[in-house]
Amino acid sequence: MSDKARRKQWIRYWVFDPLFGMSGFFIHYILRWMPIYLNSAIGAWLGPLAFNTYLKSKAQRARRNLTILYPTLSSAEVDDLLHKMWVNIGQTMCEYSILDKLWDKGRVQVDDSAIKDYLATGKPIIFTGVHLGNWEAQASYIHAKKIPLMAMYKPVRNRFMRRISAIARSRMNIITVPTDVHAMKKMYEHLAQNGAVWLPIDDFKNNQVHTPRFGRPIASKGTNAAHIVRLAQRFNAAIIPVHIIRESEPKPSFKVIAYQPICITDKTDTSILSILESLDQMMENWIKQRPEQWFMLHELRL
Q1: What percent of the chain has pLDDT over 90?
Q2: pLDDT, tens digit, 9 for 90 and up, residues 94-149
Q3: How many CB atoms lie within 10 A of CB 17?
Q4: Which end of the chain has fewer CB atoms < 10 Å from its terminal CB, N or C?
Q5: Is residue 298 part of a domain?
Q6: Residues contacting residue 156 through CB under 8 Å, at least 6 positions apart
Q7: First CA to last CA distance, the chain
């Protein structure tokens, strides 16, 4: 590394990172102090502003994806969906500061009738879904059920911002592990102790969202969907698809539906591929019903 690069790294680490970190802590706790409706309203204003000003390439990609997935939509209809998507993303980012309050104030309604019997067994669980609505809010339900939940996350570079994220998730007792070489081992240990993990299938790897496939060839290896099936197979864990959607305004609220547990009894390759295809189709349908609430629309490359 050159002297110039070292100097630049030092300045970023000791000057800019703390400055951004302090501002991040200030904003986080100001947002947490606000009433829920005001917190969400600020996010609804900031989301479109950020994407239309600073993230234009992502906005263009999201537009292109919508025109491919919904070729019959008019330009005005695409514009409306895009605006709603930026609003939802902005709201979700601000709501990180009040994830626990959303549950405490009754803003998360749950239909878990399909999984009550399985929860009573105390067996390991792999919760899965996609980044819809405010996907983090569903963890408040899992916490309320006193289920020990572990989730992987991709750490942001700024150490102060990482701390803010950790604080938000710790309020719901989520065990977080960074996506490094040790992550899968920790998940193995957690499932072996009859714990629960959260693994969404719409992971972003190598500059692409690989699942759902949206007409592309299905991948039986390397994706979160493949990891989910292999983990369930190894630990005799149930795969529980969880669907969350943001309900209509004016009050920020969410509907969570937990679907019938998928237990792998036939461990042949044909059976595993069938489960992968079933999960993929289920999640794709969820997204197509409410594309404006899918966080990964601007990262998908079709």
Answers
A1: 52
A2: 998 999 999 889 999 999 999 999 999 999 999 999 999 999 888 888 888 888 89
A3: 16
A4: N
A5: no
A6: 162, 165
A7: 37
- 176 in a domain, yes or no? yes
Q: Can you say whether residue 207 is alpha, beta or left, with left for phi > 0 and alpha for psi between -120 and 50 degrees?
A: left
Domain, as residue range, for 86: 3-293
Taking the CA atoms of 286, 292, 293 and 296 in sequence, report the sign of the dihedral they define: positive
Position of tokens 């963890």?
139
Order of strands across the sheet that contains 108-111: 108-111, 254-258, 238-246, 125-128, 196-198, 149-153, 175-178
Q: Indicate whether 219 pLDDT > 90.
A: no
Flag whether 302 is in a domain: no
Name the one residue in this structure whose structure tokens are 């609804």.
44
For 5, phi then psi, to 5°, come to: -65, -40
Quick: pLDDT tens for 50-98.
Answer: 888 878 888 899 999 999 999 999 999 999 999 999 999 999 999 989 9
Q: For the chain, how many structural domains are there in total?
A: 1
